[in-house]
Design goal:
The chain crosses the membrane at residues 9-29. By secondary structure, the chain is α+β, with helices and mostly antiparallel strands. It has helices at residues 5-28, 102-115, and strands at 33-41, 48-56, 61-63, 65-66, 76-78, 82-89, 92-99, 119-123, 126-137, 142-149, 152-160. The protein has one domain (32-160). It has 2 helices and 11 strands; from the N terminus they run αβββββββαββββ. The strands form 2 sheets. Strands 1, 4, 5, 8, 9, 10 and 11 form a 7-stranded mixed β-sheet that branches. It has a 4-stranded antiparallel β-sheet with strand order 3-2-6-7, with no helix packed on it.
């Protein structure tokens, strides 16, 4: 078989294309993505009212739905790195970025998966096994983050909002 210049160019392009596909698969990291949704339960307090919350991953963000606005769509995402909370305090708006313990989340996900207590969540591709974050606020303006499975609930951390 004779290899001329055209064949060399096609061969080089094919190799570059395969390398590009490999890099894309590696960066997507499907082996470390999970199905989960997030729910925000707020109590009306005298001073602080939470307006919105977001879970921030390394490549995307997941809006946290208030209890009456829960959506059934569950994204396939990486473990969140930060929780962003937007709230008002005496007519002033504030935004706090709270670091989330990703290693504890991964441990909780693995524990729930091993016990077979994953929730049945709904995504674009039909029902999927997954998890749910519950972000709650109490009257002392403390936010607590929980991970829920089917009949199992694990507390991740608590954080007190500043009354600036």
């Amino acid at each position: 078989m004779k290899i001329n210049l055209t064949n060399k160019i096609y061969f080089t392009l094919a190799i570059l294309l395969l390398i590009g596909i490999g890099i894309k698969i590696y960066k997507y990291a499907a082996w470390s993505r999970y199905y989960y949704n997030a729910l925000l339960q707020v109590q009306e307090t005298d001073s602080i009212k939470i307006e919105a919350a977001l879970l921030l991953t390394s490549d995307d963000f997941i809006p946290v739905a208030k209890q009456e606005q829960l959506t059934e769509l569950t994204p396939f995402n990486l473990i969140p790195q930060q929780l962003i909370v937007e709230y008002t305090n005496r007519d002033k708006r504030y935004k706090e970025i709270i670091p989330v313990p990703a290693d504890r989340i991964k441990e909780a996900f693995d524990q729930i998966r091993k016990s077979g207590k994953q929730l049945e969540l709904y995504s674009e591709k039909g029902p999927k096994k997954g998890y749910s974050f519950l972000i709650s606020q109490d009257k002392s303006n403390q936010i607590t983050v929980w991970i829920k499975g089917d009949k199992i609930k694990s507390r991740l951390f608590s954080y007190t909002l500043k009354k600036q």
